[in-house]
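In this section we walk through a basic example: taking a raw amino acid sequence and producing a predicted 3D structure, encoded as discrete structure tokens. The instruction is simple. Fold the sequence below.
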Amino acid sequence: MTTTSYQTPLNSRYSSKEMQFNFSDQKKFSTWRKLWLLLAESEKELGLNITDEQLDEMRQNIDKIDFQLAAEEEKKLRHDVMAHVHTFGACCPKAAPIIHLGATSCYVGDNTDLIQLRDGIDILLPKVARCISRLAKFADQYKDLPTLGFTHLQPAQLTTVGKRACLWIQELVMDEQNLRETRNNLRFRGVKGTTGTQASFLQLFEGEHDKVKQLDAKVTAKAGFQRSYAVTGQTYTRKVDADVICRLSSLGATAHKIATDIRLLASRKEIEEPFESTQIGSSAMAYKRNPMRCERICSLARHLISLVQSPLNTAAVQWMERTLDDSANRRITLAEGFLTADAVLQTLQNVTEGMVVYPKVIGRHIANELPFMATENFIMAMVKAGGDRQECHEQIRVLSHQAGDKVKMEGMDNDLIERIKANPYFAPIHAELDKLMDPATFVGRAPQQVEEFLTGEVYPILEPYKGQLEGSVALAV
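The resulting token sequence is shown next.
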């Protein structure tokens, strides 16, 4: 590894080797060569004068790329595709005359990009499923554990730890569906020529339109796509890139929300991300247990969310059949989008595999707030015992404010229950207070909702990923 030039942290610190390879030069340029081979094979099948010897020569040199020669050619020609045409031809002298026959640069460039987008989504989808799977197990385990709900980041009615996790899962399920739909909707650019009219191929086949259509269909199928875009300019529409990165940015928003919730809960000491025995939380404060993994998720997700502006702006300014002001931009944005999404999911899986819950702390926080939340129950119980609703409400109001002052002004524990027990007005329900204060009676259908959600929506989503959900993630740093 070089230490004297910039290397993206997405490679050196965060993303997986498989995603790094998907956007590597080796994958890119060997795919170019495969596409030249598929084109030549299909042209031969449709009657052009291409020999088996030429095709065999191309097959034998798909992965044997002289990158130094290619760099020298590009410096001389100022054209990356022609540099690689010459480099491929140098090791395939017999095939050199028919390499890139009838094609424009975007035949290899755009079609390879589409293959990388497809393969990148195929790498991400099982990782989304693994995060869903880990959180589903967590939600089921803690479906009955009451915890304070929050609205406006203020204590609200109780929910359960498992039900809150289902809110996270629901968004990941939406991301899985969005990515799967995007992957299934991806098409091949196909064999379209310089401005998308297929004029060069129509000339090669001497005006036989049907053979040109067959050529497009053959190459598309050989490349693993069911369909190609019916019309293109020189490029496939850059709205495709925008749609893909939008889906990844949306995944970033999901991950940011999950990690933020965990960070907030960690500050309350209710839930923590994994913390290793030798891990240091602060160089100065030795006691610290900072949620660095969730902070990393938020940091990377923020970058991922921001990337969507670039392909949208690119799609907006593609003049007529194309301009080249998309090229340098896309080299960065597409790869970074997938590498960042990959890094986010790797880290999120690591977090969800080792979250620690502290029920006693959660219970103490409930105890501090539940007396106020239970006041409606007290009023209903008093009315059933023959009391007057309005009078009871006033009694509760006065005692609640007194208890609130103790908490806010003196930093004392909430003593509302003790005040109610000491007040003879509430004697008819003194024996019921403990039952009326049982946190489990305040969570509504949360446990049942968890079971219904997991059974009805989550487990069916995970079914196609059987065999891909095993294994854990160990972070590099």
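Looking at the output, two observations stand out. The CA atoms of residues 168 and 258 lie 6 Å apart. The chain has a mean pLDDT of 92. In the next section we compare this with other chains.
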